[in-house]
Amino acid sequence: xxxxxxxxxxxxxxxxxxxxxxxxxxxxxxxxxxxxxxxxxxxxxxxxxxxxxxxxxxxxxxxxxxxxxxxxxxxxxxxxxxxxxxxxxxxxxxxxxxxxxxxxxxxxxxxxxxxxxxxxxxxxxxxxxxxxxxxxxxxxxxxx
Amino acid sequence: xxxxxxxxxxxxxxxxxxxxxxxxxxxxxxxxxxxxxxxxxxxxxxxxxxxxxxxxxxxxxxxxxxxxxxxxxxxxxxxxxxxxxxxxxxxxxxxxxx
Lengths: 144, 98
Description:
The complex is a heterodimer of chains A (144) and B (98). Chain A is of the alpha+beta class and 144 residues long.
């Protein structure tokens, strides 16, 4: 089964981990890698994210990390993961390898789900890393 | 097959087991994918005469979560003498019932 939020994996007798939980942990692990600027949402994910932000405003409560950019292909006893992201500040290949390793280790260790494959797609490269960007107002303030 | 039993007593007992294990919570809070629905008090539990399905979310303190899930399933199986399926549906930053 190939879907972002459907499907499930049986990790032990009577214990099932659904794709949403796997996607959530995958997103968190990928974001923890130095050089990952953001996960790249699909159009559907973008709309869903707007809905989440609206709900945050209404309820005054933050929600956990969204899973945009993550694809989970759940098989009976293992998963294949897809991660779409943009990178910056480090070579894309280096970041991709580390994302793949970090995601695999996290999902296997924390959820007990066997990961057969992590497919990392770099969809954008930020030439200026986010931490180096200076807001225009600050630039104006320090300009002579 | 009997009608699903989603009674309050059963839910309370399952909640007690989850609380004892720690880090696992009923998947019913506003952040969880399963939300309250009209006419069903406890949508995170499905029970028949011989089977109990419990849907939970895990917080960060539950990691790694597999030992907790195994422990919770074992405790539920012993407590209710039913075939228990425990489904982890999502992860949350903090306990959803806080």
